[in-house]
Every structure is written in structure tokens, then in C-alpha cells.
Amino acid sequence: MDRAWMLRSLRAIGAVVALASIATVASAQSAQFTGKVTSSGQPLGGASVGIPELGVGAITGQDGKYNFTVEVSKAKGLPVVVFVRYIGYKPKRMSVTLEAKRVEKDFELEKDVLSLDQVVVTGVNEATSQKKTAFSVGVVDASQIKDSPATSPLGALAGKVAGASVMTTTGQPGAEPAIRLRSATSLTGRQDPLVIVDGTITRLGLADINSEDIERVEVIKGAAASSLYGSDAANGVVQIFTKRGAGLAEGQLAFTLRNEFGQSTLPRKVPGNMSHDYNLNADGTFALDATGNRVERDDKLSIGAYPVYYDQLDAVFKPGNFMTNYVSVGQRRGNNNFNASFQNTHDAGTLALLNGFSRQNFRINVDQVMNDQWDISTGAFYGRSHSDQGEDHGIFFGMKFLEPNIDITAPNKDGTPYNAVIKQAPLSGNVVNPLYGISQRAVFDDRDRFTGTFKLRYRPAQWLTAEGNINFDESNDLYKSFTPTGFLNSSGAKSKGGLYEQSTPNRTYNAGVTVTANKDFKWFTNTTKVAWVYEDQLNRQVSVNASALSVPQVTEYSAAAQDPNNPIQPGSFTQTIRNQNFFLISTFDIKDKLVVDGLIRQDQSSLFGSESRSHNYYRGSVAYRLSEDLHLPGVDEFKLRYSYGTAGLRPTFDAQYQIFSVSGGSPQKVTLGNPLLKPALSKESEYGFNINFLTNFTFEYSYSDKVTSDQILKVPVSSASGYQNQWVNAATLAGNTHEATLGAVLYSKGETFWRMNLAADRTRQTITAMNVAPELVGPNPNDGNTRIFRIAAGQKFGIIYGAKWIRSADQLATTIKAGGLTGSTSDYTLNELGYYVAKSAWQTVNEKPLKAYNADGSTLTPIGDVNPDFNLSMNQTFQYKSLSINGVFTWVKGGNIYNYTRQWPFNEQRDPVFDQRNVPAGTTANPYSGGRKPVSYFQAFYNNFDANDYFVEDGSYIRLRELSVNYQLPRSWVKAIKLGDFQTAKLGIVGRNLWTSTKYSGYDPDVTGPGGGNPFAYRVDYFTYPAYKTFTLMLELGY
Amino acid sequence: MQMNRLARGLGILAVTVAAGCKSLDIQNPNAPDARRALSDPSAIEAVAGGTIRTWFNTFDACEGNCVLAVQAQSFTSSWNNYNMFVYSDYSQTDGTRNATGAWQNDPAAAGRTSIEELWTGYYSALSSANDVLTAIRINKLVINNASDTKRSETIAQLIQGASLAEIAMNYDKGYIVDETTDISTLAYQDRKKLRDAALAKLDAAIALANGNTFVTPAAWANGNTYTNVQIAQIANSLAARLLAYWPRNAAENASVNWGQVATYASKGISSGAAFDWMLIGDGCASWCPDILQWFDAVDTGRIHTRVANMMDPVTQKTPFPLAAGGNTQPNSPDKRLGNGTFGTADMVAGFGNIPKTAGAGTDFMYSTQNNFRPSRGSWHQSNIGHVRYDLSGVQDVNGIYAAYGPAPAFTRNENDLLWAEGLIRSGGSLATAAQLINNSRVNRGGLPAATAADGVNGLIAKLQYEQEVELPGIGAVPFYNRRRIDGLLVGTPHEMPVPAKELGVFGQALYTWGGGANPANSPTPP
What we know:
Number of strands of chain B: 8
Low-confidence stretches of chain B: 93-100
Structural class of chain A: mainly beta
Shape of chain A: globular
Mean pLDDT of chain B: 89
Largest interface: A-B, 114 and 105 residues
Shape of chain B: globular
Radius of gyration of chain B: 26 Å
Order of helices and strands of chain B: HHHHEHHEEHHHHEHEHHEEEHHHHH
Mean pLDDT of chain A: 90
Distance between the termini of chain A: 41 Å
Distance between the termini of chain B: 92 Å
Helix content of chain A: under 10%
Strand order of the largest sheet of chain B: 1-5
Oligomer: heterodimer
Number of helices of chain B: 18
Structural class of chain B: mainly alpha
Largest sheet of chain B: 2 strands, antiparallel
Number of helices of chain A: 11
Strand content of chain B: 5-15%
Radius of gyration of chain A: 32 Å
């Protein structure tokens, strides 16, 4: 009976809540239950009180009172359990034998500050207490989000779930970060988990969704848990539940108004070289040769001050406004509840002249109980956003080549703003005045998003539930880029202008039917579910490009030049993707202490090769609540668990097809098709335990051993075939992750409460097999510059490949032996900067660093590893009376970043290291004797822009990722300042990314390469919009 | 009862949802597969026409060819786009540049791409040509009528030969594949066998062109049309080019059947109704004279000081480093350079030109600007830009070559030079040879005429001057001409290895040519 209570109570929460009013209909042979639910003496509205096994119950009103009746005959003379539950509180129960009388019972619930009784639904058969899950399920609930909600829901996971790495792919306002759960599953693709929002399998991103609407996020991190989601779930699953009215007290109307206003600022500025190596005239101007070029100093020392300096960074980077307004209304009344919200965001980012990102979101969720067997849940979301973007102007690239004597705020010759023609000899083809680009060009991205959800639930019997759902998701994206005629490049050449527009209307829907049976047997309870899931996705894109315009300042195609040499070029594509999946899952709860679970799933997908259309996945898992049998002193709960499961990664749309490109009207072979192409197969074992001890502590440890075979790789084929490549299943990637979470209530007395959560993880990953030739890959498959990450069998994954400079005696000896240098080791010496140089060149204008050779005569070797040693985050919550403080610190220890943003300007002496003014001067006879180096010394590191270890940097950092300080104003103040009937008013400050400690030399260590490739494995800093910090004031009103 | 209701409810839902379910077999609507691309007569005809474009886009690709141009010290670039800088000056052994000069035939090396483009591009053209011939000869496909079918067959045959010829000229070995080959049993053949196979295909193309009458559609060459007679001339010129440019060194050059070269060239594009085989760039949308994008634009590439010095030894010093300020304005007797003036005053800010005066050259210009600091390598960046194919002033007064307009695949002057060399080296008429040389030397350069009295050595010297001045921008032709007279810098590889990417497909060992540790090229095949 005990086990039945536990499982059935969890399973039937929804039913009890739904039936709250129906069950109050009395009859002659009814038992009537009434009473009050409180916590710390205060009434608890919205708590559910009921008898789950009989499907009856009620929701407490705002006064905490409940009232329901049940027919005595339903209990068949057996005792039943009255179950009381409210999210965030420890549940209570009471065993009674039903009689036709009134039972009055009050319940006092205790806060579940360590979330020990949290219920999850992701990856499991049905709603399951965390005490009984056989694998780790990370949960972030509204209480962890509400005080400093991230612009994107994925950002809300940062620092809160062990094993979840969140990384900024671009700081562009409104952009969503990338997330990886545990070790990588794919060598070249992204690691995005499957994301489900209120049952909608979303393929259209989360950038449109605001965090304030989130009730709860559940995260499962690999195949050991995610098998239930099949061929697209090897990266794990993130399931998001938005707020509904179901948690409100009966009759309650809840209203929240929250406003934040503040600023976004760049965390740091990265200046260039503030000196030069040119001769000056007596008046301080540059000496010029006969053709107007500057004359380089004979000693090539960058020690000259410019005649004038301008703070260019200050002109380009400006603090931008950050504002959010959020209003939410929810009500629960009888058979209905709803929650509706509106959110307005404006984030100007940190670039001057741009408005940044703005978004308006509307959401409504409605639940309706039809009768004692049918109920429905619906939801609708509409969001629209607009951003004017800073990425596409060459801003972050071009400005790195500016010399500091250029006034980028000066006007052009014709008086128009922002001096475009900024060339000065020696010329740089790379230099750009970012302000001119931003002011003249327009790059907009507008998105509309609509999501509709519908779920129908039917309970023909207490032991049987059927559900059907249809979820629809649509996104319309319009990207537009306009360059006016006469747009100047830095040399003064005028452009013909251009107009590019790209429309991307995508839609997807998923539908499903599940039937769940739940039966109690003598010594176990079984829950079995069968399901069918169908997904249908349509991606389309239409683009038009006009590369020349004939009319100025007309931003539509009527201005396009009718020039045969600049024809208007259209483009389009359509991708239809369909998947049909079936699964069966069965869970046995044996004596409330042993949970055994097994599932099998078959996925059929149009993305698989035509001769490989269906694939099977399975899972077996077990959880043993050891503390039920073995009572250890101080240990409240001790669970051992193991799970093994398989899941897949689907190929991209094009991968299976034989593809000819059509260029100039004629077909040409590109990709050899592969009808046998399979999804990648990930197999994961997860071992772990959960221990709750000394009442106030909880600890969870998991070890994941993941092997993903059949990696989907695009590999070259013999050119004799005429084709360039083929997608094949060709490699195996293994990874393991240790992750641990410690929760502790450090102090809880009176009105003071202090809680801390620590989450840590460490991941290692290796390519164990690869049956194609090793190759270099990078974040952008179309950009050869950043392909510096080598994939090969037996090699760690995330290795940066390039050249090393000789810094040790061993390297020197090996290089000489390999023929890379002549002479003997005595011909070389270690210089002041730790690099070996030719002794004859040391402290001369000819001094250069020397390339290290391997024993086999090659110079290419692993030079860095992007994998952090570990990630650690600390989440602190402190409350004292009306004051609450929340802070999230993250510590990423180790992991390299390849800094191209620094390397490229070396070509033009723009890095601060060139500046020798602060290095001791040498003698008149030898200006290098104090340690100064000529510009040619440092330019050697540019190395033709090929990767070398000079630009491999430690990406470690410690960051205060979130900080919120809130003060709840006394009611009397609220009235005094005429805030009306609001019962609560909170005033606070919110900081995001406020403080960072790092040795990384770029703008921010939370950076990764552009182009959409694997952002965690291919970490490069490549002229992207840097992540920034925001600081805001917050006012929240509610009743 | 309850179960019935459950069944009914689920049934309704299932029917509703299933109605929306469609087949999982989805055809890719965005691009054709072989079935759609190679079965329809009009599609096959488009493939035939496309072989010319693929071949030309490879012949004029900057990737690979630009490196060959700078290795030949014909052009220079201090940019490292397409690895030009890293492969361009092997004399630098300061540890910052490639000290050996070997092709970086390693999948981990950035320089690997320079040896991939020509391999993949020419085999792509060859494969398409094979598809056309498979359809016509094996599957007996008829394209509209017998005449149109023969037209496609002839073009495919031409590109078969032209593609194999380029593989033979650039790589130490390769596959000989045609419409009869089973590509599941590939084997490398040496470069001599490749050359002979290419020649056989070109001979077959000549026979087909001579045996049929047709005009190629304008779309096949982006606006230009060719008669069957012209196709035969092109094939003859390509055959002459193959034989003459195939040698890896002077010894092999001496073994060329120069009489055969003269015979082919005498039937080439400068014979009869002479014409230039110019293909039309469209800004690289489909037709891409990429090599000219870099070297007919003075801000990305310049003619080498070695060549500039040949045209005006007085003002154009070589090599760098020079005195501050670089070389001064030229005053060349060669009208192709003249006084170096070019363009308009509007362009001065962007390109450092001296606006055009009466003494302007036709092919070259002078720029006062140098894009690079000496420490970056301006020692090999001259003040002379190549603007022969530039259309600035026609298309855009402020732009400079933007890959539009005619771009050379084979000029009549190049054919003249091959013809002349064939005559000179095979003991033919020196007077005729001199006349052929003068077609460019006098008619374009305004230089004193070459005569038979110059003798073999004198004529060869004048011929080689014409090669240096006339042929920059025509694929990798300057490289082949420098290679076969041992004119390349020591350490420069004389041919490309099979790219690592291809070797990797079959798990074959990596190897390379050039640099200090490797021979410059494979041994002369028996």
C-alpha cells in the first residue's frame, strides 16, 4: 500500500488538480474532507489535497482551505491515503478509512528547500519523484530564474545544472547561446539538445522565448536517459514548461508586473598598439618618402608616439539601454485555469548607433476540465522581434587594424558623418571605420514566431490514461541588408551599393498519442506506456540579391540596377522532414525501493538513407533506494542508480542525397548520395548515487560513459568519380563525464535563510575510431582559416593543431636534429621573452623566433586543447526578512582558446605587444640590449595566419554570472507611495556577467568560433560581437 | 464500455493525425541527382556545355594557379590568400615562412589546398565529359538530332582531352578515366601516359570537329559561340600547349617533339581565321576568371619585378629591397607598359595610378602605392600592375578588374609563340618563326622586329620575352614556361603530388615534391 501511495500520488497529481471542483459534488454515501493547508502558519493557496487512487481532491483557496467529497463505496472498505502537495513543499499524507461522515483535517507543509521531493517528467515513464529516478535529471525552476531572468531560456541553465555547458556564440543582442550536455556526441555538428517546450518539439530555436514565462526546465543529458526521445536525442533533452494557472489557489487571480531598466556595457576594452616604428620629422609629423609612404625606423622598434591619439574604442562601444517589462495574469476558477503574459525586451547591446534587439512576446495557457474523464490543455505563443545587427559590417575585424591617430568620428569630405576614407600609408586593405559602416549600412533581422499547443487527456479507468497532442510551431524570419550606392571603402572607392533580402518561413508540427496503464500488484506497481509520435517539418528560404543599385537611399528592389554585369540573383530551397516514431516503456516499482525501467523505441525518418529508414533504440535502468534497507546515521536518503541507453543523431537534410549543383544552367556533381546513411548511435552508461544527509544537505554524483559511433561525416571521395564528397558513418567518439551537485541549507532560522548549490563537472573525450583519413575541421566549414582542429583516430577531441615556437632546449635539439635549423644548440640562445633565437641575431634587428620541428621533420603538432579541466558553479541564495540576495558564480578552469582576433592584426603591427616603449631601452650602440624587439620579431608570430602556439590562450575564468538583490517593500510603503492594491512590491538590482576574472587577452573568454560548427570543440576567437554585462534596476509589483 | 470509449477517442485522434502523415520518402527538390541530371537529353546537353565552364573555372582558379604564377616569379603577392605568400619566396629562411618550399601535402597543413583545386576541378570536368559520352556512345542517347548529338559529343571529347592534359601538366601521376572506365578499379598512371592519353583524346576531338558541322550555343561560353572549325583549332592549340608545357625541366624540354608542336600549332587558333579563345566572366557567379581578379587588380597582386625589369630595366629595378619609395614611373619602349599611366584621377586615391596620358601602356600600369610594409615582404611587390584585361572605365570607373568580361583561355599570340618555338627548336623556318613572334612583339609591343638573322638563340630570347610579357594571366602558363627552362627558384616544386585528400580516400602514404628534402618532380617516365 505504501508503494502504491507514492507512485499513484505522483501520477495522479494532474488528475486531482483537474478534478478539484467536480469531486466536490456530494452524495448520500459520501465522505466529506475539509480543512486548511498552511506553511509557517500562513495559509497556502493552490495546494492540492486529494485521494489520488480514487481520482478525487481539491485545490486550496487563498485562505488555504479545501473541501472535497468522495463516495465511500469507491474505497471498497480499504484504507485510502489523503495526499497533500504543493510545488516547493514537502508533501504530506494521511491514511484514513472512508466513512460517510465529515473529516476535518489541517495540514502544515514544510518548505522543500533542497528540492528533495521534486517531481520530474522528462525521460521517465510519467511523473516521478527525484527520489526514484534511475538517472540524473537536472531541474531549474522559476525560483532560480525569476530574479535575474536571462534573455534566452538556455542562458538560464548556465551555472545551474552540472554537466551543462553554456557558451556564447555571439554577443549580438538577442542571440541565443549554445549548450552542450556532458561530452560531445558529434565530431563536426553542433551539440544542441532536443528542446521541447510544452510538448512542442521545437526546431526553430529558443531565442524568441522569454525566461520569465518558464515554470520549470528539466534536463536529461545523454542516451542513458534520453532513449525515450530516440534518434534525435543523443545530445540530451531540455524540456521547458511554461507557467500555467494550475498552481494558483482556487479562485485566485494572480497578477505580476516586473520592470527592469539598466545598461549593457563591454566588460573590458582591448586596445591596439599605441606606438609605431616610423621616422618623424622635427615637427612630429611622419617623414614620408618620395611617393608619400612613411619611412620605417632603421631599428624597426615600435617606440614612436603618434602625433595625436583618439579613443576609438570609446567611440565605437557605447553603453546601451537594457529594458524588460513583463506582465502576467493568471487565474484558477472551478474547471478552468489560465495564465497569460506579455513581455517586452529591449537590449541595445554595446555598439554605438545601433538600436540592438527588441522583442514583444504574448503567451496564454488554458486548462479546461471537461468532465471526470476528459480534460484539455491548450496554449498559444506569439513573439515578434527586430534587431539591427552589428555583425555584418566588418566592425570587429576592421577596427582591429586602425592606428590610434585616426579620428573615426571626423566627417567625410562631403560633410557626411564618419570618415570612411581612413587609409594612411602604408596601406591596409583590412582597416574599416566601424562607425561609417554602422551609420551607412542597414542590417535587420525580423522574426515572428507562433506556437500552438493542444493536449487532450482521457481517463477511462483509474488505471488507464490516454493522451493525444498536437503542437504547431512556426517562425518567419526576414533578414535584410542594405548598402547604399556610393558607399566608400577605406581607400575611397565607391560601391555600387547592394540589397539582399532573405525570407525564411519555417514551420513544424508534432503529434502524438500515448496510452498509459498503471496497475498495483501484490509486491510491485507497474506503469506501462505505448506511444506514437509524428513530426513534420518544412524549412524554406527565398533570397534575392541585387549587387548594384542605381538610385540612392531606396531600400527596395525598384532601385536595383538593370546591369547585366550585376544581375539580380534569386535563390531558394525547401526542406521537408518527416519522422514517425513508436515506443514502449515499462516501469516496475518494487516495494517502493527498487525501480526497474525498460524501453524500446523505433524511429523512422526521412533524413535516414532510403535503405536505412528505421532504427531502434532501447534503455534499461535501475534505481535502488538503499536507505530503505540500510539505515545509516545521518543519512536521510541514499539511492544508487544505473542506466544504460541508446539514442541517435539524425543526419542533416541534404546528407543522404546524391547532389548535382546547377551552375550556369548545367548540372555538376557535388555530393555522392548514400542510401545507407544511418543516424549516429550514442550509447551511454550512467552510474550515480544521490544522498540526502544531515537534513540540510543533498549530494548527487553521476558518471557518464558515452560512446557515439556511426559519426556522420562529410568526407572526400575520389575525384575520379567527379563527386567532391559523401556523407558517411565513419567514426566513433567516446567521452566520459564526472558530475556532482551539492545542495546545502547553511542557515535557516527565523527570517534568515542561506542556501548554497555547487555544481561541478569534468569531461574527457577521445576519437576512438575513424575509418577515413584524418582531417582538419573548424567552426565554419566554408572558412579554411579556422580549420585548425584535427580529428583522427586515437586523438583527444578538441585538439588545436599548428606550429610551435622553440621555447625549450629539447625543442631546439629536436629541431636541429630534424634539419629545421643548422648548426648546434650553442648557436642559439634563449631570449628575454622565453623564446630561442639565433645567437647571432639576438638583440639585433634580425632577431626572430624559431619554428619547432618534430623529429620527423614536420612542424605541425597539437598546440592546444579546448577542453576545460573542470567547470564549477556556485549558486547562493540568502534571505533576511524582506531582503534576498542571489548570486551565481561560474568557474571554468582550463581549456584553450585560439585567438585569431589577436593574430590577424599582428600582420599590421596592431597588437599592444609591439609597443616597446615600456621595455627598457638599450644602449645607443645597441638599442636592443635592454630587451626591446623589432616589429619584425613579433610579426613572425603572424605566421601567414597559420595556427601557432603563440595565440593559444588559457580560457579559464571565474565569473559572477548572475546577481540580484531584492527588497520587498512593506505593505505600508506600497500604500504610502500609492501603488494601489498591490500586495507585493519588490525593488532590486540585477546584474548579469557583472564581474569576470581571467587572464584571457580578448574581450571575453566566453567566446567561440563563428559559422555554426561545433562551438564547444572548435573554440576560436574570430572577430565576433563580444559578450557583455548588464546592470539594471528592477521593480516588481504583484497580487 | 470504458474501453470502447477509449478506442473510439483514440481512433478519432489517430485518424485525424494519420491524415496529416505523409510518406517518409522525400525527393530533394533543391538539386538534381544523377537520374534527373543525366538521363534527359536536354540535361545531358547542358552537362556537355557545362564541361567548358568547369574546365575554364579550374584553368582560371586562383587556388593553385595563383601560387604557380608567383612561383614562376611572373606575378607577386604579399597577401597570403590562396597560400600565395607562403609559397612565393623560398629564399627566406628566417623561420617565419616555408623554408623548404615543398608542397604541403598534409591534411593538417594550411597550404594543402593549393594542390587540391586543379585535381578536383579537372577531374570534375572530365567526369562530366565522361557522363556525356556514356549517354551518347553507350546509352545511345540522341540530343534533339544527330547534329546536336555530335556537337555535344565533340565538346565532351575536347574537354576529356583538355582535362587530362592539365592533369598531365600539373601532377606526377593520375587516373586516366573515360566513358569506358570502371572507376571502382582505379589505378594511377604516370604523367607520360596521362599526356599520351590526353593527346589521343584531343586528336579524337579534332577528328570529330572536322567531321561535323555545328555552332556551339552561346550559353556554353557565356555569350561566345564557336564553330566546329574553331573547336578543331582550339583542340590543336591545346595539343601544342600540352606537348610544349609538359616538360618538368630543360632536359625534358629538349626531348619534346617540337615538330609535332609546330604541326598542331599551325592548325591552332592563330591559323586560318585567327581568334582568341576568350571566355566571358560574369563576376564569378558562374564564370570566374579568378586569377585575373587577383592579378589584374593592383591592390592584390603585381607583376614581379623580374618581369617589370625586363620591360624597363632603367626604372624598374629588381629585386627588392630597393631604396625607399620603390621604383619610379616607367618609360618603357614596350607599348604594353609605356609610361605606366592608367585610368582617371578618380582612381588615384584607391590605386595610386598616374592618370592616363598619351604614352599609356596597353597591358601594364604604374602605381605609387605599396600595400605592405617592407617587413611584410614588399621586396617582391613591384610598382607595376597588370591591367590588360581590366574593364575599368567600361563597367565602373572606380573599380578595377571585377571578373567581368573576356578572360583568356588561349590567345592567338600564345599559339603563335608555340608555333614559333616548334619551328625554331625543330629546325623549321626561322623567318616564319620571327614573323610569328613579331605578331605580338611588334604589333602589340611596338618593339623592333625579330628576324631570322637573330638566329636560334636570339629568336628564343625574344620569344621568351614575349612569353613573359604576353602570357601573364593565362592560367598557369607562365609557370610551365619557366619550369621547362629550369627558370624556377631552387627548391620550387616542379609538379604537384596527388593531393593528400585523394591519397586519404584510399589510405595511401603521403608524399610531396620540392623543397630541400625532396626532388622537384618525379623522374622522367620511360
